[in-house]
Write a structure and sequence with these properties.
2 copies of one chain form a homodimer.
Chain A lengths: L3 H33 L2 H32 L3 H34 L10 H24 L2 H26 L6 H34 L20
Chain lengths: 229, 229
């Protein structure tokens, strides 16, 4: 039998996994809403984000309460602090899904995504779903090797992001400035979503090994992923 | 005389204020680098961000150490947890300044900012400097009334952001897609910078009053600040 403290920690871990499910579902539905110009789906994603915000607040309250009541040290303390950081990542991932849904809503009844980049956006959505699902498994399993595989998904996301920017700036863009603005932001939302998933996985690695991968401090490629003019 | 715990808390607070200075200086220099296409200044901002990352890491280590050694409860516990959240905001603000500097570097020797939107970007830079300076004062003074004035600066930033998007999407944009991509991202970086400053101020309010302003949970206007097509 586990003691009360570790039961509480398990509860926190379960809640983090639940947050990965919600963030993944939100991004999957946001991608569909964006590609299909589905206003109802977009609205449902925007609405559902509140639930993720609430979960984060609940989880952080549980964590602070746990710190106050149990006064953990060493690994136990690190687990609680790390859980609070992961909940911040996951809540932000929900925000990013909501942002994608808002772009879909803003352009309704048209699709914000020109036909020739649909395939790229679709793939970005798929990578986003995959990487957050893996982040959930890593939280549940504490599997350091599995955590490392998220890097590859993130590399795939960076490649797609680079492709997307390539299409925006290679001089062949025919869809006007407004569509360019939409696609620039949408591309950034997907990329940041993946960054936060990697950050979650790195935090698990830190928890298990005590070693903080320096790259995890700022796992963002952003502008550098744009090909120079 | 203050006890050891409160001396440590003071040290953490001082370090947070120092982080606001660094983030403010970084964004001020990034704005100049962007407007003047000053590659050396851009490089110095990109380089200096590491210092802010280090400070955050140091501060978080101090905080965890403080939790382990002193096992604070109630307000003291809340202060330490809040400090860790503020350090995350401030580190992110440094990242955003670095992103602006990277856009300047990417377009060098040209300026990424077309002449007709220079004034808007300049103002966004000024609001960014002002809001982070105020965040620093709020951390130092714990002044709840001062914290509330950051909302007005953030509203000013949102207005400027809306103006910027207006120029991108009103059909008169003459500077090509690449410049539109740059300006879309730069606009978002300034806006997010201000959001994080407001978030810091809200956290101080929470610390002092125990009341978490619901709006503080997600203080982001983003896509909604774009005028509909």
């Amino acid at each position: 039998m586990r003691d009360a403290f570790h039961e509480d920690l398990d509860k926190i871990s379960d809640q983090l996994v639940e947050m990965t499910h919600l963030a993944g579902s939100a991004m999957a539905r946001a991608t569909t809403a964006l590609l299909d110009a589905d206003i109802n789906l977009a609205e449902s994603v925007i609405e559902a984000d509140k639930h993720l915000d609430d979960l984060r607040e609940e989880l952080d309250a549980m964590s602070v309460d746990l710190l106050a009541r149990q006064q953990p040290v060493a690994t136990d303390l690190r687990m609680v602090v790390t859980a609070m950081r992961m909940s911040a990542d996951l809540e932000r991932m929900g925000d990013l899904a909501r942002h994608v849904a808002k772009v879909a809503r803003l352009r309704f009844p048209e699709s914000a995504v020109p036909a020739d980049i649909r395939a790229t956006i679709l793939q970005m959505g798929q990578v986003a779903e995959r990487i957050v699902a893996k982040a959930g498994q890593v939280i549940a399993s504490k599997d350091v090797e599995a955590a490392k595989t998220l890097e590859r998904d993130d590399d795939a996301m960076d490649d797609l992001h680079r492709q997307l920017f390539g299409k925006l700036v290679d001089g062949t863009w025919q869809h006007g400035t407004e569509a360019a603005v939409d696609i620039t932001l949408v591309g950034r939302y997907y990329e940041r979503f993946a960054d936060h998933a990697v950050s979650v996985a790195h935090r698990v690695v830190y928890l298990v090994t005590g070693e903080w991968d320096l790259e995890a401090r700022d796992h963002e490629e952003d502008e550098d992923s744009r090909p120079p003019a």
